[in-house]
Write a structure and sequence with these properties.
This protein is mainly α. The protein has 13 helices and no strands.
């Protein structure tokens, strides 16, 4: 499980951080830490899904596209801002958060920066800390249990294995029609199973729980923009629905529908 988490963090943190810089110019270290893993994971899900839909799926090609996404993210982060060409809205907001004074026509951005600075200085850090600990508890089950409960994971494990072996989700003689779930989850699970050298069932088990934990924390990061990140995180991590989907096997279904 730990190896799978480290692999997922390695391929998602940089793209997630780059996206966070663009989507939330007012984000500080706390918010970036909550948002980056979730944003990066959603991006890599999309990348794997697109590679699969292209009909050219191989582990090597998927790895190359993931590497390309990380390379472009690094290039974006290293790009210098040319003030002569003008700043984008998120660049202006980021600049104001670091003390830059804008012209009068950008008063709305200055007001937003003031609001964000107030939210950040009055952040419910204890709630965020407790909520993160509770959310990371989602990852405990794959560590202490060899196989998950329920049956949802079985279908996803079969599809993941099919992608790994044949590059498609066709189950000859078993099903008729089309698979209705988006292919991103089984595609990334297939990539993870080969990258971490684990079987398809464990890849689905690990990826599903990791996705739930990261997205709960990421959603709290989004709510932190409105000053309620800590409260939201505690509420979500203690939710009955989350508890049920962690200990049932509904987590791959939830993750698949999200991406």
């Amino acid at each position: 499980m730990l190896v799978a988490i480290l692999i997922l963090l390695a391929i998602t943190l940089v793209p997630g951080y780059a996206l966070c810089r663009v989507l939330d110019g007012a984000a500080d270290g706390w918010r970036k830490a909550m948002l980056s893993p979730a944003l990066g994971l959603l991006l890599i899900y999309g990348v794997c899904g697109l590679v699969f839909l292209s009909g050219l799926w191989t582990w090597v090609l998927a790895s190359a596209v993931i590497l390309l996404a990380n390379t472009l993210s690094i290039a974006h982060l290293k790009r210098r801002v040319n003030e002569e060409k003008g700043l984008t809205q998120w660049q202006k907001l980021e600049a104001v958060m670091h003390g830059m004074i804008l012209e009068s026509e950008d008063q709305e951005i200055s007001d937003e920066a003031s609001a964000q600075q107030w939210f950040q200085s009055n952040r419910y850090k204890f709630g965020i800390t407790v909520g993160m600990i509770l959310s990371l508890g989602i990852l405990v089950l794959p560590i202490i249990q060899e196989l998950p409960f329920g049956v949802d994971w079985i279908g996803f494990a079969v599809l993941t294995g099919q992608i790994s072996e044949h590059g498609n989700m066709v189950l000859s003689g078993v099903n008729e029609g089309s698979w209705t779930y988006p292919p991103a989850f089984p595609a990334l699970a297939s990539w993870l199973s080969e990258a971490a050298n684990i079987d398809s069932g464990r890849a689905v088990f690990f990826l599903g729980h990791y996705t739930l934990a990261v997205l709960v924390i990421g959603a709290a990061g989004a709510m932190d923009h409105h000053g309620s990140g800590g409260q939201f995180l505690v509420t979500m991590s203690l939710g009955v629905g989350i508890f049920a989907k962690v200990y049932d096997s509904g987590y791959p279904t939830v993750a698949s529908q999200l991406v």
